[in-house]
Amino acid sequence: MGEGWWLVALGGAMGGMARLAVSDLFARRMGSGFPWGTLTVNLSGALLAGVLLGWLGSGATTAWLGLVVGGLGGYTTVSSLSLQTLALWQSGRHEAALVNLLGTVIVGMALAALGWWLMGGGT
């Protein structure tokens, strides 16, 4: 594994700390009625992933490992998305649960494509 292992670990730690900071900020500013922090983290992470794909290309380069696999892997979160969506559904807030889930997936995919395109992807 070499230096790639350390880059993933360091990026993951930094990404996780950034996720906590963003989630806490949104919880303080907007309350806990909807998982705004997780939505913001996942959507901004999708945009950054697209930007990095367009900038770096995909593959096991040291930059890709540290920034995407580690950093964005630690920053974005499927487990929080899943648990928060389930909690919304179980509390009878079905519409909010669907907005959270579909918004993250559909808008996230669009933002990843936008980031890739902005970096000259496909040219």
Automatic annotation (TrEMBL):
<keyword id="KW-0406">Ion transport</keyword>
<protein>
    <recommendedName>
        <fullName>Fluoride-specific ion channel FluC</fullName>
    </recommendedName>
</protein>
<comment type="function">
    <text>Fluoride-specific ion channel. Important for reducing fluoride concentration in the cell, thus reducing its toxicity.</text>
</comment>
<dbReference type="GO" id="GO:0005886">
    <property type="term" value="C:plasma membrane"/>
</dbReference>
<keyword id="KW-0915">Sodium</keyword>
<feature type="binding site">
    <location>
        <position position="73"/>
    </location>
    <ligand>
        <name>Na(+)</name>
    </ligand>
</feature>
<dbReference type="Pfam" id="PF02537">
    <property type="entry name" value="CRCB"/>
</dbReference>
<comment type="similarity">
    <text>Belongs to the fluoride channel Fluc/FEX (TC 1.A.43) family.</text>
</comment>
<feature type="transmembrane region" description="Helical">
    <location>
        <begin position="6"/>
        <end position="27"/>
    </location>
</feature>
<dbReference type="InterPro" id="IPR003691">
    <property type="entry name" value="FluC"/>
</dbReference>
<feature type="transmembrane region" description="Helical">
    <location>
        <begin position="96"/>
        <end position="119"/>
    </location>
</feature>
<dbReference type="GO" id="GO:0140114">
    <property type="term" value="P:cellular detoxification of fluoride"/>
</dbReference>
<keyword id="KW-0479">Metal-binding</keyword>
<keyword id="KW-0407">Ion channel</keyword>
<keyword id="KW-0812">Transmembrane</keyword>
<feature type="transmembrane region" description="Helical">
    <location>
        <begin position="39"/>
        <end position="57"/>
    </location>
</feature>
<keyword id="KW-0997">Cell inner membrane</keyword>
<feature type="transmembrane region" description="Helical">
    <location>
        <begin position="63"/>
        <end position="89"/>
    </location>
</feature>
<feature type="binding site">
    <location>
        <position position="76"/>
    </location>
    <ligand>
        <name>Na(+)</name>
    </ligand>
</feature>
<dbReference type="GO" id="GO:0062054">
    <property type="term" value="F:fluoride channel activity"/>
</dbReference>
<keyword id="KW-0472">Membrane</keyword>
<keyword id="KW-1133">Transmembrane helix</keyword>
<dbReference type="GO" id="GO:0046872">
    <property type="term" value="F:metal ion binding"/>
</dbReference>
<keyword id="KW-1003">Cell membrane</keyword>
<keyword id="KW-0813">Transport</keyword>
